[in-house]
Fold this protein.
Amino acid sequence: MDILNKVKSFREEENSLKWEGTFAEYLAIVKERPEVAQSAHSRVYNMIKSHGLTEKNGHKLYHFFGEEIFGLETSIERLVEEYFHPAAKRLDVRKRILLLMGPVSGGKSTIVTLLKRGFEKYSKTDEGAVYAIKGCPMHEDPLHLIPHELRDEFFEEYGVRIEGSLSPLNTMRLEKEYNGRLEDVMVERIFFSEDKRVGIGTYTPSDPKSQDIADLTGSIDFSTIAEFGAESDPRAYRFDGELNKANRGMMEFQEMLKLDEKFLWLLLSLTQEGNFKAGRFALISADELIVAHTNETEYASFISNKKNEALHSRIIVMPIPYNLKVSQEERIYEKMIRESDMTHIHIAPQALRAAAIFSVLTRLEPPKKQGIDLVKKMRLYDGENVEGFNQIDVEELQKEYPNEGMNGIDPRYVINRISSAIIRKEVPSINALDVLRALKDGLDQHASITQEDREKYMNYISIARREYDEIAKKEIQKAFVYSYEESAITLMDNYLDNVEAYCNKNKIRDTLTGEEMNPDEKLMRSIEEQIGISENAKKAFREEILIRLSAYARKGKRFEYNSHERLREAIQKKLFADLKDVVKITTSSKTPDESQLKKINEVVARLIDEHGYNSISANELLRYVGSLLNR
Ligand SMILES: Nc1ncnc2c1ncn2[C@@H]1O[C@H](COP(=O)(O)OP(=O)(O)O)[C@@H](O)[C@H]1O
Ligand SMILES: [Mg+2]
């Protein structure tokens, strides 16, 4: 029943936001809060700003996009700074169609959807409130009621500029319903909604022959012509095209360049002049943000068509390339999986990373800079430290190819391959190797890959695999690290006891049996060899350690395992070497003995409890790393 309560309070909240009153009352609102009368472009910009921003390394991160769009900070910044911001200030860019251009599945639709959803929410806030002439299918701006002759005076008094003329329908209603008394015209608060077709329109062109301009501009309502007598009576016209409905908000054109030419001209007049022609009426004013998206190929063929020349200068193209950061790519996949029906599947940690490495490699251009290969470039782009390079190098690399990221593997392909990997496996758990294999197998079926690219991509799969091998080893090490500190101390104490006995030519007492024994030469050497101490140098090294030890003792300080830099290194290396052996032995023996079994179980438990694995993926990882170490 909880949901019903929520529904109820949701409805109450919606109702509490409603407002209606006369135009005279509305003017009082405008006086107090002029922002209610802002243009669609200004509203978008303020909406984006209202979510806040962070400045980092001289770049602005807009939070509005940040939770859904990953790794495209530069493109988003450019979109806001070069389009939304100046458009909000009524600069000329707002008279151009905004065209997001980028490769397939690169996030264009997601950006537009964010804007649409954002608009819906924003119109419910105080700062984003929108008002319209009541009963108008185009939710016309009430300020259009102010006659042109009085608009300068209006500006002086209210500080608001009015653009556009009262529509034919409302001109008629003003006469017939209100006897010309504009102060009595009813105004209401509206809430943008794509579903209810308020302030948000979308259009996807069908094939050119069946594209009907009425979808955009509305059409004659034949059922009412008889009632009103003439086609030119606006009451006999249905202003229910997408452009009508999108008034005050935004209009999305999918695959805009597939639009029939006459549609494009309609859009241009709308953006350029702020009005469009519908039916037999005078021009209809509309205020809406027009966003379209397209891919590079389509855009190139559009550009190359001489007929479209006049259109070029009226479109502002914003490139939306693929993300080029591995860790952000992982977040994209995580998000897509959360939104999919794969949520019940266990995806082993690092599996998405392996896929992300592959995808990003396919998108990167080969660096021209000396001393950098593709993998290093990939790391630098992701903000990792690469020895000998810094942030300035990253910027130089980015400048080498300003259009980087327009090609390569798209995120949707990866998600599709992951889901086919899931189908193939009997258990609901997949790991990095499953994913890489599925990606590789899919390359043959990928329609848009040339033979040349396929070979390149195969190579990137191998690179991703090698990167993953290193990651996998580190995962295992992490799982051992739990008792690492403890083991390091035990090992060092043991070493120090032996060194002391060696230097003083003493025997050493076995703690268990109490038996007197010679110092354990084999143990000492196995540690010293880790840092390249030769047979000849061992005596000096041991004496040096002993001197250090007694210096600590004199000062009453405890000698820790990391009190001597080289000894610490030796101990660590020895531990990892032992670890290697443990992993090798425990994972390769078919019938592990009791202590090996215990170790395996501990590691598996830790992988599950602390590192996000399940029992299948943890065992798979252990086996895999075992096989790597046995190579
Ligand atoms: N940079 C990105 N950040 C977040 N999600 C992304 C990104 N690029 C692609 N996606 C995801 O990939 C899928 C396809 O993106 P979409 O917006 O439909 O691409 P487009 O319209 O450019 O073809 C969506 O699920 C989207 O969320
Ligand atoms: Mg799309």
Notes: The mean pLDDT is 90.
